[in-house]
């Protein structure tokens, strides 16, 4: 992802800027309520298909994902965050244009693993859906668009809120260590969501719209492909 976001202001207090950004969000419902039935199924048939199409190493990646989904549901949430973040951060970063031949493409978690890589949105989406499947409630998770001040470009991360109003933890592919938002001065929050459908929000302060109608088509395409894979979260 390399879309630019213009923001000339210096960040203020780190924890407050993340919390205040949350007050500006248009947030709908994505995924099931807590306690929904398991939906992801990494079956022998799926693994056979992956091996035939993408090779042995792709099969191993998907099999490991399936193992996480089967065995780690009873782990404490703090441990789930570490397991999922570390697992997906092993994959390489690949820009959409080079990887998919498109300017912007949202891969399903399975596509991300099969093809061995993706951009920041693919990392974030895979982590989000996997954590939801492991039973982390939707109200504790956000897919958050930020500006990477180091890279000077738009970027997506997962943020985890242990309780309402808490300072979030940041799960990121740029920095593999899960940190409180106040320890990530390189990230300026713009807007976040955990919702399906059209989500648009103005950037804090001066700036332009950073969401657009094509985000809806990207989300719908992602959901269609997840349904076809049999891996859509149950509602």
Short description:
This protein is of the alpha+beta class. The chain has eight helices and five strands; from the N terminus they run αααααααβββββα.
What does this structure look like?
The chain has 235 residues and is an alpha+beta fold. It contains eight helices and five strands; from the N terminus they run αααααααβββββα. α4 packs antiparallel against α7.
Secondary structure category: alpha+beta
Number of extended strands: 5
Q: What fraction of residues sit in β-strands? A: 5-15%
- Span between termini: 29 Å
Overall pLDDT: 80
Low-pLDDT ranges: 4-14, 22-38, 196-210
Specify the number of helices: 8
Oligomer: single chain
Strand order of the largest sheet: 4-3-2-1-5
Helix content: 25-40%
The SSE order reads HHHHHHHEEEEEH
Which key features would you list for this structure?
single chain, 235 residues, alpha+beta, five-stranded antiparallel sheet, 5 strands, 38% helix, 12% strand, globular
Secondary structure layout:
Layout: H1 14-22, H2 44-54, H3 56-71, H4 77-88, H5 96-100, H6 109-114, H7 120-133, E1 141-148, E2 153-160, E3 169-171, E4 179-180, E5 187-193, H8 214-229
């Amino acid at each position: 992802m390399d879309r630019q976001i213009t923001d000339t202001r210096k960040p203020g207090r780190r924890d407050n800027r993340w919390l205040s950004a949350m007050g500006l969000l248009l947030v709908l419902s994505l995924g099931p309520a807590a306690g929904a039935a398991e939906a992801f199924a990494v079956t022998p048939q799926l693994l056979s298909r992956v091996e035939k199409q993408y090779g042995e190493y792709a099969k191993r990646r998907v099999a490991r994902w399936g193992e996480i989904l089967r065995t780690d549901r009873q782990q404490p949430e703090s441990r789930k965050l570490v397991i999922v973040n570390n697992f997906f951060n092993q994959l390489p970063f690949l820009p959409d244009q080079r990887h998919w031949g498109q300017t912007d493409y949202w891969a399903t978690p399975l596509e991300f693993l099969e093809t061995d890589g993706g951009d920041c949105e693919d990392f974030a989406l895979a982590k989000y859906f996997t954590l939801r499947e492991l039973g982390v409630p939707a109200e504790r998770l956000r897919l958050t668009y930020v500006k990477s001040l180091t890279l000077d470009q738009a970027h997506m991360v997962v943020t985890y809120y242990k309780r309402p109003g808490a300072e979030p933890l940041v799960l990121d592919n740029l920095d593999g260590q899960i940190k409180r938002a106040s320890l990530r001065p390189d990230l300026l929050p713009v807007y976040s969501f955990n919702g399906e459908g059209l989500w648009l929000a103005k950037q804090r302060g001066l700036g332009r719209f950073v969401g657009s109608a094509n985000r809806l088509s990207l989300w719908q395409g992602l959901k269609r492909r997840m349904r076809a894979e049999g891996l859509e979260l149950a509602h």
